[in-house]
C-alpha cells in the first residue's frame, strides 16, 4: 500500500465521502418526515433532545451568551458535530471498514431514539432517521468503493511506471483519471441532490407547518343547526365503509403539486363578475354569518364503478346562496366560476348555488374539525349532486358570476363536461375480490348514493339469480350515502355478486358501462368471490 502525501489526500476525500453521506442522511430524513411523519425531523428531534437534557445552568449560560440566537447556536453546534462525525465515518470506512457504517448506524439509532421519545411522536416517526441512515450507508459504501478503485489505480500506475523503466516493455496502464472522475461524479451528484432535497423538504415543511399550527389552534363556532343522525343510520357489518369517512381516510383529488397553505387571517373571498356589487368577505365575516352542519357525500368524476373516490363528511358551513345574495347576481348569468388560490377553477350552474332546496355550501369544517389543509383549508365549496370537479373547489378565493358561454373551467378544455351531475351508483365493500370467505351465512354489504334524490332500494344478484332487495341503513338525508346489506347463504366455489341502486325517482342505476370521461362512469360492479 502506498504511503506519504497521496494517502493523506485519499483520507481527505474519504472524509468528504463521509460528509456527503451525512448530508444524504439528513436530506432523506427531511423528505421522509415531510411525506410520512411531519414532526420527525431527526436534526430537530436531536436538537430538542439536547435542549431537554442539558442542565439548567448550561441553558442559562447559552441564553446569556447567544441571546435570541440560542437555537441557531445549538443547531450550528449540532451541524458541526454532524460534519465531524460523518467525516470520521468516511475515513474509518476507507481504512477500517465497516467501522464507518457502524458510526452511521449509531447516529441513526440515536436519532431514532431522540425522535421517538419526543412528546407527540408519530407512529411512523422512526421512518425518517432509519431510512436516512440506511441510504446514507449505501451512499458511503458506493463512494468509498469508487475512492478505493481510484486509489488502487493510482498506486498501480506508479508501480508499473517503475516496472516499465526497469524492463523497458510496454504495459497497458490502469487509468486513475477515469476512476477519479467516477468518484467525483458520484460525490457531486449525491451532494447536490442532498442539498436540493434537504433544503426543499425543510422549506416546504416550515411553510406548511406554520399554517398547520394555526389550523390546529383554530376554534370554529358551534353549529346553529345540527344534523340529526337517526337510529339505524349505521349497519353493523364488518368490512363495510363507515357512514362518515374519517378525514384521514377521505379520498383526495386535486391538481395541487404542494398543498396550498393559507392563513385564514389573510384569506378573503371575492364575489364579482355579473353582480350588482362586488363583495369581499374575510374568514371572520363568514363565521359571523352563522354556521350550520350539513351531511353531504362527495363524489369524484374519476371514480370507477366500485371505486373509492367517494366519501361522506359532516361539513360545517353556510349556504353559498347567502353570499351570492349579498353581491346580487344579474340577469343573464347562468354559471359561477369558482377559483382556488392555486388557480384551479370549476364551473357550477348558478341555479345549483341559488336553489333554496339545495344545500350548496361554503365549508370551513369537516367532521368536527377545521378543514384539513389537503381538503381545502380554510374554505371550500361542497355542492350536493355535482361531481367535485364542477363544484367542490378547495382553497376557494373567488366566485365569479358569469355564463357558460363566456367562461371555461380547468377541466372543460381537458375532455370533461362543463356540467356534470353525479350518476347515482352503488358498490360492494364486502366480501372482497381476492379475499376468500367460508361457506355459510356471509353478509354482502356496501354503499349506495344518489345525492339530492335519495336511495330508494339496493338490489343484489348472485350469479344468474334474481335481483334481491337488500336491507338499507336509515338514511341521514338524501345528500348522504346509505349502507346496504344482504345475508347470503354462500356455497363453495366462485360466485359473481352484482349490486345496483334504485333512486327515489324510481330510476335504476345505469347498467351500460361508461368510462369516467367526459362526465362520470356508469355500469354495474360484479366482483367474483371465492367461497371455500
Ligand atoms: N383547488 C382545487 N379544488 C378542487 C380540485 C382541484 O384540483 N383543485 N379538485 C376537485 C375534484 S376533481 C374533486 S373530486 C374534489 C375532491 O375533494 P377532496 O380532495 O377533498 O376529496 O375536489 C375538487 N376541488
Ligand atoms: Mo374529481
Automatic annotation (TrEMBL):
Leader sequence segment: none
Alphabetically ordered keywords of this record: Membrane, Transmembrane, Transmembrane helix
Transmembrane domains' residue ranges: 72-92, 99-120, 126-144, 183-201
Gene3D superfamilies: 2.60.40.650, Oxidoreductase, molybdopterin-binding domain (3.90.420.10)
InterPro entries: Ig_E-set, OxRdtase_Mopterin-bd_dom, OxRdtase_Mopterin-bd_sf
Keyword Membrane: yes
Residues of the Oxidoreductase molybdopterin-binding domain: 257-407
The protein, known as: Molybdopterin-dependent oxidoreductase
The species this protein was found in: Agrococcus versicolor
Amino acid at each position: 500500500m502506498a504511503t506519504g502525501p497521496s494517502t493523506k489526500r485519499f483520507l481527505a476525500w474519504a472524509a468528504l465521502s463521509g460528509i456527503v453521506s451525512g448530508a444524504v442522511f439528513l436530506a432523506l430524513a427531511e423528505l421522509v418526515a415531510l411525506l410520512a411523519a411531519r414532526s420527525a425531523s431527526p436534526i430537530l428531534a436531536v436538537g430538542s433532545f439536547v435542549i431537554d437534557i442539558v442542565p439548567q445552568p448550561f441553558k442559562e449560560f447559552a441564553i446569556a451568551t447567544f441571546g435570541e440566537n440560542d437555537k441557531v447556536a445549538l443547531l450550528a453546534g449540532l451541524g458541526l458535530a454532524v460534519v465531524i462525525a460523518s467525516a470520521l465515518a468516511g475515513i474509518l470506512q476507507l481504512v477500517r471498514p465497516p467501522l464507518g457504517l457502524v458510526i452511521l448506524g449509531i447516529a441513526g439509532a440515536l436519532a431514532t431514539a431522540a425522535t421517538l421519545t419526543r412528546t407527540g411522536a408519530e407512529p411512523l416517526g422512526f421512518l425518517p432517521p432509519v431510512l436516512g441512515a440506511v441510504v446514507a450507508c449505501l451512499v458511503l459504501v458506493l463512494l468509498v468503493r469508487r475512492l478505493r478503485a481510484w486509489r488502487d489505480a493510482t498506486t498501480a500506475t506508479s508501480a508499473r511506471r517503475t516496472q516499465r523503466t526497469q524492463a523497458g516493455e510496454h504495459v497497458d496502464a490502469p487509468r486513475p483519471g477515469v476512476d477519479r472522475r467516477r468518484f467525483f461524479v458520484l460525490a457531486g451528484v449525491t451532494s447536490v441532490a442532498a442539498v436540493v432535497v434537504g433544503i426543499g423538504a425543510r422549506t416546504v415543511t416550515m411553510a406548511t407547518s406554520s399554517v398547520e399550527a394555526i389550523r390546529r389552534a383554530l376554534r370554529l363556532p358551534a353549529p346553529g343547526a345540527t344534523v340529526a343522525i337517526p337510529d339505524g343510520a349505521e349497519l353493523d357489518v364488518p368490512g363495510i365503509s363507515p357512514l362518515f369517512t374519517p378525514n384521514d381516510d377521505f379520498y383526495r383529488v386535486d391538481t395541487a403539486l404542494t398543498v396550498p397553505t393559507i392563513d385564514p387571517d389573510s384569506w378573503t373571498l371575492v364575489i364579482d363578475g355579473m353582480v350588482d356589487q362586488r363583495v369581499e368577505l374575510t374568514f371572520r365575516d363568514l363565521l359571523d354569518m352563522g354556521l350550520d352542519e350539513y351531511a353531504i357525500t362527495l363524489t369524484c368524476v374519476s371514480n370507477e364503478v366500485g371505486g373509492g373516490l367517494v366519501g361522506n363528511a359532516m361539513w360545517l358551513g353556510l349556504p353559498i346562496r347567502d353570499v351570492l345574495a349579498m353581491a346580487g347576481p344579474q340577469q343573464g348569468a347562468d354559471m359561477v366560476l369558482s377559483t382556488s388560490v392555486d388557480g384551479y377553477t370549476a364551473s357550477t350552474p348558478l341555479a345549483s348555488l341559488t336553489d333554496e332546496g339545495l344545500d350548496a355550501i361554503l365549508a370551513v369544517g369537516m367532521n368536527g374539525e377545521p378543514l384539513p389543509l389537503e381538503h381545502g383549508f380554510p374554505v371550500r365549496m361542497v355542492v350536493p349532486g355535482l361531481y367535485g370537479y364542477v363544484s367542490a373547489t378547495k382553497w376557494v378565493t373567488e366566485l365569479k358570476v358569469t355564463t357558460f358561454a363566456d367562461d371555461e373551467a380547468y377541466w372543460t378544455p381537458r375532455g370533461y363536461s362543463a356540467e356534470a351531475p353525479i350518476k347515482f351508483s352503488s358498490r360492494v365493500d364486502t366480501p372482497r375480490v381476492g379475499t376468500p370467505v367460508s361457506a355459510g351465512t356471509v353478509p354482502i354489504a356496501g354503499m349506495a348514493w344518489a345525492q339530492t334524490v335519495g336511495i330508494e332500494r339496493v338490489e343484489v344478484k348472485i350469479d344468474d339469480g334474481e335481483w334481491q332487495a337488500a336491507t338499507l341503513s336509515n338514511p341521514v338525508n338524501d345528500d348522504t350515502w346509505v349502507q346496504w346489506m344482504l345475508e347470503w347463504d354462500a356455497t363453495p366455489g366462485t360466485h359473481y355478486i352484482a349490486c345496483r341502486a334504485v333512486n327515489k325517482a324510481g330510476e335504476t342505476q345505469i347498467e351500460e358501462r361508461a368510462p369516467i370521461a367526459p362526465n362520470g362512469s356508469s355500469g354495474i360492479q360484479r366482483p367474483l368471490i371465492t367461497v371455500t
